[in-house]
User: Fold NPCBM/NEW2 domain-containing protein from Nocardioides pini.
Amino acid sequence: MNRIARVACVAAAALALVSPTPIASASPAADPGTRQVAHAAQTYKVVASINTSEAAAGEDTVRITGKVKPRAAGQKVVLQQRPEGSNRWRKSGTAKVTSSGRFVLTDEPSRPGVRFYRVLKPGGDGVKAGTSRELQLDVWGWYSLAIRQVGANSGVLVGAYTQFGAEPYYSSLVQQTAGTPGYVEYTLGRKARSLRGTYALTDDSTTGASGSVTVSVDGTAVVTHPLATGTIVEDYVIDVRNAFRVRFDLVGSATPAGRSAVGDPEVLLLP
Assistant:
């Protein structure tokens, strides 16, 4: 091979070595945001809130409201609850999801104690079930005051049976002797929320008798109920939140003979 031919071959080889190698085009990468949205859509998202943190057993109704995504219009959500200390959830109500994805559930707690609610959206249409966060509710209950540990007292029958207007009261505070004032104290220890009771002269008081009951909280008189034959103050409620001690002063006339009483006093406590 002559010199010119050899030079031509070398140049061709060098050109082959430096020529760019074609690169296969890559598929466009999926947008991370798109992947996240697709994943989230596989499970129902449930947001819920409760209208109060406290309720009285057998008296109050609580409302749990919220929203489901995806909207699942016309489908059901389930209200579940469990008592404090338990891991078992039980069904306590259902509601239909509106066209906007919203729902309203209600419950009437009948037993005192701390409980937790959550809202479950069962799975369907290829979407997995989802639940809301837990919502705490403190359910208070009424307990007889007369059967609690009694404090300083004089001239009062504690836990006694009496009648007002021919109605029985089985665990009451009753002035022992007409004409002789009495008092009784109870320590609440800042654990009660309310105090209620019925105030009257006992049915065995003489016609024309008079008297009164004064309720004091931590040494300050809160209310005085003037009483006469036929006067009955029913289910009177006093706010005793943060009260350490409560005292009842009972007065009844000697002539005509009258005895004041507090029928079935109760305190609202969180067990």
Notes: The first strand starts at residue 45 and ends at 50. The mean pLDDT is 89. The chain has two domains: 43-140, 145-269.
